[in-house]
Design brief:
single chain, globular, 22% strand
């Protein structure tokens, strides 16, 4: 395991702080910097300074000192001036994920994709625990990888949610099992094109060796095998009968073994293929089919991911604040079993929202728009169904409730980030829940 005489940690968020703590625990001198100067970065900076780190906020360019390594947090744009400055100086860059993974002695199962990663990571971690193994969910879901490796040195498995942002600066990361769930338009404001985005995802598999497992949707597998040049054993999954692991009619069949997922949150056409990939990854890790069936059956949807937020006056409120791209919005609408009144909007990551038009026309009765994207969404969707620009979430919920009838669903699936009006998708989801509870009071149901 390599040690560094001096390290630059870029970012004072959770992952940057975890990387700095790990390096300081190894006795490495650390300079921790952030482009932001906010109450959050000041508080984290103070904590790291107490550990002996040099801390600087509001940084616009690379510090002049000589650094042997720069640890990059996912939020830093790969082509931005700061990281370009690191490259110009010849300073090696590594992701926080890579740094933590290098310190971990157990095995690793990594999950990437556009939508559904956190839920699959949680089910797999639960399945390992049901089998009596110590597994830690980490990465974009759960702990930062550096902290997971530090706090759980004797764990059997890390189950890591891996984003395209993290893969931009991964140098050595090689999961024992890699799982690609799906590739849908996402983060194109950062990556530019779908092919560039997909090729970043393919880096998950690029360092795999014989004996490692690589799983991908049947329609993507050959391209990912070619792009990654990974040497793992490839298996496909999906709803197509030709896949190695198949979801069909409430069952998963893989390698001659079959389980029922009826009644689980994955028992639908949207999430069923993810369950097939999950099953294949679990079997590659040695988990028994019955263990995987139990983990799927016992799974409770994660917060702000198509979660019921209450039913008031016969109207069901569903919080899918995590649906921050158009593909996730489409999936969220398809999962609903009731007529939908949709709340969408925020800060857009995309420019073309026409892909949602068919499902909106088929399944949605009206749209209530919030945030910066409201005019763009109204222009894209207003010709096929009523769209109202409401401005705030509170007003959108009130207007949706006035339009909805018993038996309908009011769905928050924004297709945008929350950063124009909220600090996070979680804060937006909690605000939606409070608005729904307010409608309960208005109905006199308290």
């Amino acid at each position: 395991m390599r040690r560094y005489p001096q390290a630059l940690v870029c970012g004072l968020g959770a992952s940057g702080a975890a990387a700095a703590r790990l390096l300081r625990a190894e006795g490495v001198p650390v300079r921790a910097v952030d482009q932001r100067d906010t109450p959050e970065t000041r508080a984290r900076g103070d904590e790291l300074a107490a550990l002996g780190c040099e801390v600087e906020r509001g940084v616009a360019k690379v510090p002049p000192e000589n650094f042997d390594i720069a640890v990059i947090s996912p939020g830093w744009p790969a082509d931005g001036p700061f990281l370009s400055g690191l490259r110009a100086r010849g300073i090696p860059m590594v992701s926080e994920l890579d740094l933590g993974w290098r310190r971990f002695r157990g095995r690793t199962l990594a999950v990437t994709g556009s939508n559904g990663k956190s839920s699959v990571v949680k089910v797999l971690a639960d399945a390992f625990c049901l089998a009596g193994l110590a597994a830690v969910p980490c990465g974009n879901y759960g702990l930062p990888v550096c902290r997971a490796a530090m706090d759980n040195p004797d764990a059997d498995w890390l189950v890591i949610e891996v984003s395209s942002f993290q893969l931009e600066t991964c140098a050595d990361f090689r999961p024992d099992i890699g799982l690609l769930l799906n590739v849908l338009p996402n983060h194109l404001d950062r990556h530019g094109t779908m092919e560039a985005y997909a090729r970043l995802k393919a880096r998950l598999f690029s360092r795999q060796r014989a004996g490692d497992a690589a799983l991908a949707p049947v329609e993507w597998m050959e391209r990912f095998r070619e792009w990654s040049d990974g040497q793992g054993t490839w298996r496909s999954f999906g709803a197509e009968p030709a896949a190695d692991c198949v979801h069909s009619s409430g069952r998963i069949t893989c390698g001659g073994q079959s389980i029922s997922i009826e009644g689980s949150p994955f028992d639908n056409a949207v999430l069923g293929p993810n369950a097939a990939g999950l099953f294949g990854a679990g079997r590659a890790a040695g988990l028994a089919p019955e263990i995987l069936r139990r983990a799927l059956a016992e799974f409770t949807p994660l917060p702000h991911r198509a979660c019921p937020a209450g039913e008031y006056g016969g109207v069901l409120y569903v919080d899918d604040s995590k649906a921050t791209n158009q593909a996730a919005l489409i999936a969220s609408i398809r999962m609903q079993r009731r007529p939908v009144w949709l709340i969408a909007g925020g800060r857009p990551k995309e420019t073309d929202f026409s892909a949602a038009v068919p499902v909106l026309r088929e399944r949605v009765r009206g749209v209530f728009l919030i945030g910066e994207a409201a005019p763009v969404l109204a222009a894209a969707w207003g010709r096929v169904l009523p769209c109202r620009c409401c401005g705030t979430l509170e007003r959108a919920v009130a207007e949706a409730r006035a339009a909805a009838k018993p038996g309908d669903c009011i769905l928050l699936a924004p297709a945008c980030t929350s950063y124009d009006q909220f600090r996070s998708y979680a804060e937006r989801g909690e605000a939606f829940r409070r608005c729904a509870e307010g409608e309960k009071s208005a109905d006199g149901k308290t």
